[in-house]
Amino acid sequence: MELLKARCPECRSQDLYKQTVYTTEHHGRRVIYRCKGCGELFSQTRNTFLQGIRKPISLILRVLRERTEGMALNAICRASGVAKNTVIAWERRFSGIKQALLTYALVHQFLQMVIEGDELYTRVQCNTPADESHGWTIVLMDRASRFIWAMQCGRKDRKLFRKALATLCKLIERTRDLSLLTDGERRYGNVLFEICHELIGTGKKGRPRKTLKKGVKVRIKNKGSQAHKKGRKRAKYQAPCPEHPETVQDIPNSAIHANHTEGFNASLRRRNAAYRRRTNTYAKSDEALQRTLDMHWVIHNFVRPHFTTKKVPAVALGILESGLSWEEILMIPMAAA
After folding, report:
1. How do residues 209-231 score in pLDDT, each as one tens digit?
2. Which residue of 29, 59, 98, 133 has the fewest CB atoms within a 10 Å radius of its CB?
3. Can you list the domains of the chain with their CATH numbers?
4. What are phi and psi of 72, to 5 degrees?
5. Where does the pLDDT of residue 336 fall: very low under 50, low under 70, confident under 90, or very high at 90 and above?
6. CA 139: distance to chain centroid?
């Protein structure tokens, strides 16, 4: 697998040979490579999660696996006998693998993709009003494969939407036909239109018309009753921004929903202690919350088979031929990001 092949940390070459082998206290035998191009000498764990780690891998995997299954930070520290700062350092290292895997996923070409967008909410640091909390999380998920392209937390404002949709803009360049479907939130389409549009020349005087890029569609299902509101009623199904005239309009109204993303949000509340309601295990900072989300992103997309498709999402999407194991995840070079 190209993702797991050893590369020189200096020149990125794969033309290597084994210089020697050494034995570690807890991790068995490891290889020292030498690059034939630049002559760099390095261990097989260079720039990976395991670089400089002395704890047994079995202990590290147990701690990280329990954290991604819903165990709180203080609870896992008591159960495993590991200091809190050590667990946090492991999580920061593990979340650094996300960028390498996201970069690897974005080099692939896709013919058609339907993305569902939805948000979920939790408390951060203290119990503040929802509009002031930094615990809002935007999830962008591919409908067919259940592959999550973005999980970004922060205060629910345009800045947060721009961060989440920045990944979607990169994906648009690699996809011929992309549809974004949301439930009621208009800022998905409006912010995407701001950062990812093109000009359509008509040959007439005046400014060219702005539209979404060719092949990109955005649809909103407006939820809730508006019978008590005055003025013009919004349509139940809408395209919130102008689309390219050559974009094929093939989305039926019955397909405009974010049910799959809402189902994932429900499972995330079980697997992430910071999203549990009626408890005080909420995140202490948005950085800590994003760290746990990055861990869930890696495990959900590349390790854990989805219960409906019975496949790892990265395999269902065609990025990998088979899912990765926990040990393989720890050996991915993070400098490849």
Report:
1. 889 889 999 999 987 655 556 66
2. 29
3. 1-46 (2.20.25), 110-225+233-287 (3.30.420.10)
4. -75, 160
5. very low
6. 8
